[in-house]
Amino acid sequence: MTVGIGWGAVWIGAFFVAVSACASEPPTPRPKREVAAPNVASVPAASKASSAVSKPSGGCGKPAGAVGERRLTVGTQIGLYIVSLPKSYDAARPYPLGFAFHGRTRNHKDCQEHDCAGFQDVMGEEAVLVYMQSLREPSDTDSGWERPAERAGNLQFFEQVLAQIEADYCIEERRIFLAGTSAAHVR
Fold it and tell me: What is the CATH number of the domain that holds 136?
């Protein structure tokens, strides 16, 4: 899946709103529908060209930033996240960027090591991967992404991490994707 990052705060804000909707409403059955393959011939030439154009981040051509657990200050809190690079990472080649979000009462380490393990297994050698922990106090084990009081801080944290990753690693800015478990998924 590719995500146009041009939507910025509006899109990720919608992500956090959608996550909260998932956590507070019971699932509703969806009617099955058939989806036809797009007719490529009907796509204007300008659209085809723009979707194929690469947009490398500012981190391309620079030595890679730190991997493993990293920290960012967000307001008065410290945000934690884990960065995972392909073993053959090349700072001259733009990579897709994937974010994996843990469920409520879980953390970034749980996501990387257990809850989102398939994410690492499938994408670990193809993309730069980031596992963020929702903002919380060190002793808090109940925080997540979706409650109204959590959204603004988590959105700010996401935006700061995204900017840091794009500055520290060679990212293809037109190939950013998200995944999550439990209260961090989008239906």
Answer: 3.40.50.1820
Residue 86 burial class via C-beta count within 10 angstroms: exposed 0-12, middle 13-18, buried 19 and up: middle
Q: How many residues does the chain have?
A: 187
What are the angstrom distances between the C-alpha of 2 and each of 26, 86, 104?
28, 19, 26
In 3D space, the residue among 139, 161, 150, 146 whose CA is nearest the CA of residue 79 turns out to be 161
Q: What is the DSSP letter of 6?
A: G
pLDDT tens-digit profile of 63-117? 999 999 999 999 888 899 999 999 999 999 999 999 998 888 888 888 888 888 7
Quote the domain boundaries for residue 138. Answer: 56-184
132 in any annotated domain: yes
